[in-house]
Amino acid sequence: MHRRSAHAKHGRSARSLNLRLPVLPDQWRRWALTLALSVTAGVLSFSFFPNPATMPVADRLLDKGAFAAPALPSLLGQGTSSSIADQAPAPVVTATAKDPATRKPGPAHSAAPAASAAAGGGTAFADAAGIGFFDGTQSPAGMETAATWLGSSSSLKYAQDFIDATDFTKISNPWQLSHWQGSPFTMIWGVPMVPCGAPATQCATNVSDYNEVANGGANSYYVTLANNLVAAGFGSSYIRLGWEFNADWMGWAICNQSDSALTSWASDFVPAFRNIVTSMRSVSGQHFKFIWNPIDTANANCPGGNLENFYPGDQYVDAVALDAYDGIGTATSSDQARWNDILNGVNAGGYTAVQPASINGQSFQGYGLNWLAAFGHEHNKEISLPEWGLMDAATDGGGGDDAYYMTQMTQWIKTYASGPALFWNYGGGTLQLNIPNYTNGGTPNASAVFKAAFGS
Length: 456
Fold this sequence. Notes:
single chain; alpha/beta; TIM Barrel; globular
């Protein structure tokens, strides 16, 4: 889960309870972060978000227990602590809603243009995999309402949920499988590569566990996970494994917490990914598709984090993906400038810590949507957007009710998304669509574009 903070050219603020940590050695910084989260969790809830100038993220996970409507929202990046063993799970959310009275005026928008195509190979939307939502509710009812709004029960194909990262036992035996049984949607499961000691996956890396996964010592847990998914009827799910690994806030991050360099355990990522894929594919009856899923480098990256070096190999990957939100945490001069950052994988019009290798003679500024289209085409993989969505201008440097972004993104999806494209339809930093009897994010203009693009 995840949401992301933007890079400033000379560094990035530390992620912790909206406070800045002092500049300390990595181990001290992780200790300080863990202590701060532990203390806060004992009071009410804990938040893994960056300072108010940065983006929210999708890293949501939930508490365990029998399902019941939660009293308070809690997404993957924000968990709710409790001493009650069988507390009902709360929805996974990634940002805390801001009181409307404290919000700044929204940005002035450009007229929504005809979208331009990105570079690289693509697939017509008629032949593409389709769209879906993440709404944080862990049930299909709301999405069924949204499908009706779009014109037919088949308008939405995918739903997404995130597996509890507390420990290997929770990872291997997801409590929420029964919530989705009988759903008309194909599932995309966010699968943690290492435990976090709490449901959410934004955490300091447990290096010992990461080494265990990379060495094959945790293979049996992922075999058990695959068996449980198959037994529950989810043998054809997409497995979103180790998502946003180039972001410093994930438990399997390859960038250190100051984004100044790669972590010392970055070399664990590829063998860990391969071991998990091999383990899950060993189970009879599975037809999983595995998504390799960094985040657009407009939102996160570090020196040395060249994504090509962390690609596990074509035999371990079925779909390549980026998460691409309409906001990077740094104000841009216009809707078009912000969109160009997303396409090019650069922050605030020009900065990225790493530049991709050229593909068939084509060069790229950063790992953005232009790069993704070309990389997916080169490797003959499905091209997916497991997270994309609108961002609150007041807190996350986004475009708010941005019809320009929505026009461009829906056209890009129709042109290039041969794999699942999941709109992040949850509030609090990220903005929901306006769908009667379902969600209302104060986004009438963007919602109209979405419906025109994907409705029947």
